Amino acid sequence: MVFVVVESMLLVAVVRFRHREGRPPPKPTHGHTIMEIAWTLAPAVILVFVAVPTVRTIFATAGDAPPDALKVEVIGHQWWWEYRYPDLGIVAANEMHVPLSRPVQVSITSADVIHSFWAPALGGKRDAIPGQINRIAFRADSVGDYSGQCAEFCGASHANMRLRVLVDDAAAFEAWVGRQRSGPAPQVKGSLAQRGGQLFARSACIACHTVEGVSKGVIGPNLTHVGSRTTIAAGLFPNDSSHLARWIADAPRLKPGSLMTRMAPPLTDADVAALVAYLHGLP
Ligand code: CUA
Questions:
Q1: Whole-Å CA distances, 45 to 38, 51, 52
Q2: Contact of 81 with 234, CB cutoff 8 Å
C-alpha cells in the first residue's frame, strides 16, 4: 500500500514537472520556514502516537505478575529450550505447559549465546542473554497449542529452534504436573524397553542427558519424561518411533550443527529400536 502510494506520487511528479522548452525555472522552496517546521513536527507527532501504546505494552508485559503467578524459568540452549518450574520441581524441554487463565511469570536467560524467546500469540519476544534474566508475564485465555520460535540468530540451527506453549485447562495441567513430578517409569523385565534402558545407562547418552535416578547430564534436554512430549528436536519432528530412531542414529542430519553427534561406533538398528522403546516408555 505504502509502496503503491509513494511510487504513484513519484510517477506523477516525474511526468507533470519534467523539463519543457520555454518553461520558467521552478521557484525554490529553500528557506520556507513554515514548511520546514511542518515536516519536522509531523513525523515527531506520528512517532509519539506510536510510542505511547508501545511503551505501555512493554511495561505491562515486563511487569511483575501477581504473587500467585506460575513461575517458569526459560533457558535457551543451542538449539533447544529448557523450562524449569522452581515451585513444582519440574524440568521440561521445548514444550512448556501452562494452566488456563492463571498468570505466568517467565524468567528468561541463556546457557550459551543470545537467543530470543518468542511465542507470538502469548506476548512479545524477550532476549535470552547469558548472565542476565529478562522477564515476561502473560495469561492465556484459551486452551491450545501455541507455537513459537527463537527470534535471535544463534548459529547453524537457529531456524530449527522452535518451541511450543501448551495451555491446559486446570485438570489437564494438574495431571501433567503429577506425571512430571513422578520418577521415571519402570520397564517390564525382559522387554525391549528394558534392554534399551541398560544400553542408555552405559552409553554416551548419560554424559548429556538426565533421566532421574539413572544419569545427571545437563547439556541436552532432561529425558525423564520424554515420552510425554509430542515433538522432538525442539519442536521439529513428531515424537514417533521413526523420527526418534532417525534422531538417535544421526541427529546432525536432522538438525545441522546439533551437539548430539553420531555415536562411534555407530549404533545398530537393533540398539536404536531398543533405545526408542525405552525413551517412549518414559511418559
Ligand atoms: Cu536460539 Cu536463534
A1: 10, 10, 11
A2: yes
Residue 140 one-letter amino acid: A
**Residue 63's pLDDT band (boundaries 50, 70, 90)?**
low
Does 277 contact ligand 1 (Cβ within 6 A)? Answer: no
Q: Count the alpha carbons within 13 Å of 206 in the hemisphere toward its beta carbon.
A: 13
| Index of the ligand 1 atom closest to the CA of residue 128 | 1
Cβ 125 under 6 angstroms from ligand 1: no
CA-CA-CA-CA dihedral for 167, 171, 172, 174, to nearest 10: 90
Ligand 1 atom at minimal distance to the Cα of residue 150: 2
Higher pLDDT pick, 232 / 24? 232
CA-CA distance, 152 to 217, in Å (whole number)? 26
Tell which phi-psi region holds residue 168, choosing left (phi > 0), alpha (psi between -120 and 50) or beta: beta
Please give the model's pTM, rounded to 2 decimal places: 0.80
Ligand 1 neighbour 154 (Cβ under 6 A): yes
- Euclidean distance between CA atoms 158 and 256, whole angstroms: 10
